[in-house]
Amino acid sequence: MARLPVYLLALVALNEAEVTVCSSKELAARAGVTSSQLRKDLSYLGSYGTRGVGYDVAHLRYQIARQIGIAEERPVVIAGVGNLGHALASYAGFGSRGFEVVALIDADVTRFTEPVGGLHVRPLGDLPDIVAEHGAVIGVIATPPTSAQEVADLMVAVGVRSILNFAPVIIEVPAGVEVRKVDLALEMQILAFHEQRSAEADIAPRRTASGARR
């Protein structure tokens, strides 16, 4: 499942480049996997390639999007229109990846007349109407950590079943609600760890060589 969106991204790029057919080797290289891994993953979805020809880009793109659940655009509501929420709402890439931001909500009344990404910010209390109107089942939390749990509770109460949480705090949700957490600082800490390990690995051979000369 983690690799399917990567394959889809590669296929979107091929489609935009007006490539109609691609080999498993080319698609695997774009996705950063081996050809055998790609073929094995796609075999679970069905038989979509032609031996000696390759994959029909548009057809495979649709089939993967269907498996992921984004063959049709999924409506998304973003809670919190600070710097991060503003950036997410203005991101033009959601449309090509199967998502449509249908509403922005915030507790700050000073933001209600502010147009962001072609939408006007609405109060938190409008969330039930937004979900009923657009059928939104995916919510993005980009609020301060002190507000994240309250917003998550409100989303769950009105039928949002999938939440992407950018707030630096763990939120609790009932069974049946999926939460994915995005913590940019955590990811950078992981990178810093690997950088530190690489630096230590570079220093060790020099120390060994220096000791040998003595």
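the 2nd protein, sequnce then structure:
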Amino acid sequence: MNPIWVDETGWLTGLGPVVDIDPGEGPGRYASAFEQLRRTGRALAFASFTFDVDEPGSVVIAPSRVSSDPAEPVRPRGRVDVLDDGVDAWRDGYERAMKAIHGDHVSKVVLARQVKVAVDGELDAASLVARLAAANPGCYCFAVAGLVGASPELLVRARQGRISTLALAGTATDPEQLESVKISEEHKHVTESVAGALERHLAGIDVTEQIIVTHGRMSHVGTRIEGPARPGSTVVDILADLHPTAAVAGAPRDEAISLIRDLEPASRGRYAGPVGWLDSNGEGVFALALRCGQVEDGAVTLFAGGGLVAGSEEEAELEETELKLAPMIEALGQLPS
């Protein structure tokens, strides 16, 4: 499976013999990936890191060449059969998470739902990414070592001396619902965590803009932060400070991550981790690996999550996960009627 990245600038597909880089675990994994890439002599690497910094399984792939030719978004022919909808495990996690929130152990925790499906059609990564890109304009689409998805959330872009990010939190099908107290509280945690992490990498901030971002039936509150980079700051330096944000973990961060390890039925793997590319100059673009699935031999584990805070309602939060699962299910094929 060739690694693929698609954003507003176009396609990047890794071709030819590759060098596989193991960045290891811990907070130094991003710097390790960069240092190893430079030693290979390759210009660029595609990367997908685990959500949990202490967990193995991050993937960094340095191809011998890169193509900008897009794939064709042919219609899927397969049928998607749900093997485990993940609802019971999610409901159990929701109940325990809300107890922790009401007990003041955390103010926000992001709970992910895992859904296992089987697809009876061919799963070609390039075609799957092309379908996702066509159906989800404005998203960051990717395929790296079986992790395929279309994320709406830019984690960091470090290019030509500038740093930019788009922090999303708060989801609704009606944009007017984004003005609720619950969503304002959820978004506040995210913007504070992102702004704090970027502080030592930015020489200044010349763009701070709150916007509404809409993809399909979902609208989100987003805050765009941009500014000139401090001399010597690289994309891997920023990743080490920035991830995981409150958008995918919660607040306080360490307490939320500990709770996620306990609540979710299995490891997230690379879901909600940084996914994108970096080059040998220290530049790169990374999104959060959201609206995605891990593809393995015709079976796919899909992931969808949402931020829980005081005031969250169980059925509304579960419906949000359904909406977030839809882009991948539609790209994979059709659910049986």
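Helices lie at 29-40, 87-102, 125-135, 181-198, 235-242, 253-263, 314-332. Residues 314-332 form the longest helix (19 residues).
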